[in-house]
Amino acid sequence: MSFGMTGCGFGWAVMLLALWRPATACPELCTCTGLRISCVDAERSIMAFPKLESEADMENVTDIYIANQISFTSINERDLEFYRSLRNLTVINTKLAYIARLAFQSNPKLQYLNLKENNLSKLSWRTFRHLNISYLLLAGNPLQCLCDNMWLKQWRVEEAEELLCVEEGGKRRALATLTLPDCVLPTVTLTPTNVTMKKGLNVTLTCNTSGMPTPNLTWTTCKLNSAFKEEGSGQISRSQLKLTNVSSLDNKCRITCRSDNMVGESEASVELDILFPPVISKLTDAIPDHHWCIPFSVSGNPKPKLRWLLDEQPIQEGKFIHTMIHDYSEGEYHGCLQLDSPTHINNGMYTLLARNQFGEDSKAVSAHFMHEPWNVSEPLYYDDTPLGPPEDKVAVYVVVGIAAITFTGFVLMLVILKFGRNSKFGIKGFVLFHNVPVEVVAR
Ligand SMILES: *[C@@H]1O[C@H](CO)[C@@H](O)[C@H](O)[C@H]1NC(C)=O
Ligand SMILES: *[C@@H]1O[C@H](CO)[C@@H](O)[C@H](O)[C@H]1NC(C)=O
Ligand SMILES: *[C@@H]1O[C@H](CO)[C@@H](O)[C@H](O)[C@H]1NC(C)=O
Ligand SMILES: *[C@@H]1O[C@H](CO)[C@@H](O)[C@H](O)[C@H]1NC(C)=O
Ligand SMILES: *[C@@H]1O[C@H](CO)[C@@H](O)[C@H](O)[C@H]1NC(C)=O
């Protein structure tokens, strides 16, 4: 098409394209209806997993149905990568013999997997590890009576009871009653089971595993701040993780030892409980919120006890002034000394004392509580002598109210006079009113 296309011609082209799309988007030999793709033509078989033209089209497909395809043999690593919404996959009565270990890595919603009447002889549990499969149908495949397939006995495989496997001589037998030598699910023990220790000390975690074939042993940890050294991992039956000079930053860190082989996997883990004295990392001047708040952040294990001093005198906490912990994150407790309607008499030097059985920390801040001049209720706060009869209160409210309204009106007028004509600095409403006529004129 030429670039000199008129707007009208372009419109037609778009319409034609729109009409063409459904026909070209669906792979040849398959039919696509809504969110379902099905390839069932027994006369002409697909050779590879069906794909749509664009990634966006594949994104919402929930159902793929492939049946009676004599040239369909494998599901490869990236065949399903764009079918992120896929729930139902049926591949029946084909020559499917191979499914890549990572074939379903992009299909977290996959639930129903019907693979009956194919040519599968081996299948790994790792292919399905991350999925929440509720149906896995495998009947009618020449599954071999090998350790590789023994995981099927423990897995939630539909009709696992009836699943048959083929022995070397070609004889078929029930997988459910099959036992093989040297084919054992791994077990793991992690010691110690409870790591409660002071910071700065050393600890060695030991992981023992059994299982046949020899499992692969791996450690996973949070991002450790302590120095650590792994002694032995991979295909061995015992590994150690040595932590030296443990850091308080690793408190509550979870350490896991995992062991897997072709039969399955198991794991054990422990959470580090690292004892350390309190550290106050933050204490800042009061901020007005719903209440007034003197914010602080403090760490320590066990959780420190907190006390406050105002100008070196202990503060009695009560209804109007008390410590609040709002959350625990990144190893610290974050909170406020919360004050209800403080006045100038609350100004002063606030000291926070944090203590547990391993030590203590303190920090001080000078806090100022000020009232904005336009705070209507202020006179009532500052005046220690009670007001007279109720009419007096009303009079105060009326006077202050009128003053506030007048003041607001005055400020508004100033704003209008100063910025109203200059649309750049105008209030939103002004920008609109100001600009519309200009645009009309420009056309
Ligand atoms: C896929 O679904 C999402 C959300 O339902 C929708 O916004 C999007 O347009 C759909 N994409 C296609 C190609 O239909
Ligand atoms: C998946 O397919 C099966 C059989 O065709 C059907 O019974 C089931 O309702 C489908 N599930 C979803 C989530 O589409
Ligand atoms: C761990 O051990 C410590 C001290 O030995 C004990 O106080 C704590 O309750 C134990 N924790 C668990 C979860 O067993
Ligand atoms: C053991 O597991 C690790 C981590 O999962 C992996 O990188 C490694 O390839 C595995 N080794 C064997 C022999 O399976
Ligand atoms: C232990 O770690 C702390 C920092 O976390 C460091 O200051 C100290 O020097 C270390 N001690 C030793 C013996 O390495």
Structural class, please?
A: alpha+beta
Poorly predicted parts:
1-24, 376-396, 420-443
Report the biggest beta sheet as strand number plus sense, adding barrel if it closes. Answer: 8 strands, mixed
Number of domains: 4
Rough outline: elongated
If you consult CATH, what is the topology of the largest domain?
Answer: Leucine-rich repeat, LRR (right-handed beta-alpha superhelix)
SSE diagram, text form:
Elements: H1 7-25, E1 31-33, E2 36-39, H2 55-59, E3 63-69, E4 74-75, E5 88-94, E6 98-99, E7 112-114, E8 135-137, E9 164-166, E10 172-174, E11 184-191, E12 195-198, E13 203-212, E14 216-221, E15 227-231, E16 238-244, E17 254-261, E18 264-283, E19 287-288, E20 292-301, E21 305-310, E22 313-314, E23 321-329, E24 332-339, E25 348-356, E26 359-367, H3 378-382, H4 390-419, H5 428-442
Parallel strand pairs: 2-3, 3-5, 4-6, 5-7, 7-8, 12-18
Antiparallel strand pairs: 1-2, 9-10, 11-13, 13-16, 14-17, 15-16, 17-18, 18-20, 19-20, 20-24, 21-22, 21-25, 23-24, 25-26
Bound molecules: 2-acetamido-2-deoxy-beta-D-glucopyranose (5 copies).
